[in-house]
């Protein structure tokens, strides 16, 4: 077997575990957004399965701000040898959305309406730890606007995103959207 063929056949594995996501979802209606994120940070609520799959963590949270971190690895690569843009977008979306969530009262949830990402620098395993720092730009009753920056250890800007979020009531028992009080026309 030629060396190049051997390299192609060499496989790597990665495994991870997660807890039932319904545990965290059930807390959304009972806690304020900041309390919810603080419980995640303290490990009293399980991290989202996606965080376990990609290996990113919530590092800091304050009203209107959230920071996530990731150590890039080969498992994050696209076919051309760099971290996939979807990983950038996931970190930026998490930071911007959690910044919005940190301002929400109990019985209130949110969802992203859009995410605009600008990719500015490549990320590889040699980049080292990266941080996605989210901040709320405007918070209204029904929508919020947030931004997030993806930075390397030297605080170089790797990517930037803006996100609009829809804010809505949730049932205090389920974490799911509250039933609508309006009826559809007959």
Helix content: 25-40%
Mean residue pLDDT: 91
Largest sheet: 6 strands, antiparallel
Strands ordered across the widest β-sheet: 1-2-4-5-6-3
Strand content: 25-35%
Rounded to an integer in angstroms, the radius of gyration calculated over CA atoms is: 19 Å
User: Would you tell me the structural class of the helices and strands?
Assistant: alpha+beta
- Order of H and E elements: HHHHEEHEEEE
Q: What's the number of helices?
A: 5
| Rough outline | globular
Query: How far is it from the N-terminal to the C-terminal residue, by CA?
Result: 71 Å
What low-confidence regions span 5 or more consecutive residues with pLDDT below 50? 181-186
Total number of β-strand segments? 6
Description:
- It is a single chain.
- The chain is globular and about 60 Å long.
- It has a six-stranded antiparallel sheet.
- Helices cover 25% and strands 30% of the residues.
- Strand 5 and strand 6 form a beta hairpin.
- The protein is an alpha+beta fold.
- The protein has five helices and six strands.
- The chain has helices at 3-9, 21-27, 33-42, 49-54, 85-101, and strands at 57-62, 65-70, 108-119, 130-139, 143-151, 157-169.
Features:
186 residues, globular, six-stranded antiparallel sheet, alpha+beta
Structural topology:
Layout: H1 3-9, H2 21-27, H3 33-42, H4 49-54, E1 57-62, E2 65-70, H5 85-101, E3 108-119, E4 130-139, E5 143-151, E6 157-169
Antiparallel strand pairs: 1-2, 2-4, 3-6, 4-5, 5-6
What does this entry show, briefly?
The chain has 186 residues and is an alpha+beta fold. Helices cover 25% and strands 30% of the residues.
């Amino acid at each position: 077997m030629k060396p190049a063929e051997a390299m192609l056949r060499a496989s790597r594995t990665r495994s991870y575990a997660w807890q039932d996501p319904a545990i965290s979802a059930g807390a959304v209606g009972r806690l304020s957004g900041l309390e919810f994120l603080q419980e995640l940070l303290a490990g009293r609520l399980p991290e989202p399965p996606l965080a376990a799959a990609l290996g990113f963590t919530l590092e800091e949270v304050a009203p209107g701000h959230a920071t996530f971190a990731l150590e890039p690895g080969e498992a994050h690569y696209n076919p051309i040898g760099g971290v996939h843009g979807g990983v950038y977008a996931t970190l930026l979306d998490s930071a911007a959305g959690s910044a919005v969530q940190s301002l929400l009262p109990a019985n209130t949830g949110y969802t992203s309406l859009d995410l605009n990402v600008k990719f500015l620098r490549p990320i590889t395993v040699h980049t080292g730890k990266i941080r996605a720092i989210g901040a709320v730009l405007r918070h209204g009753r029904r929508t919020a606007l947030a931004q997030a920056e993806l930075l390397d250890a030297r605080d170089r800007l790797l990517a930037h995103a803006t996100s609009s979020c829809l804010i809505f009531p949730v049932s205090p028992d389920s974490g799911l959207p509250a039933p609508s009080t309006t009826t559809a026309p007959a």
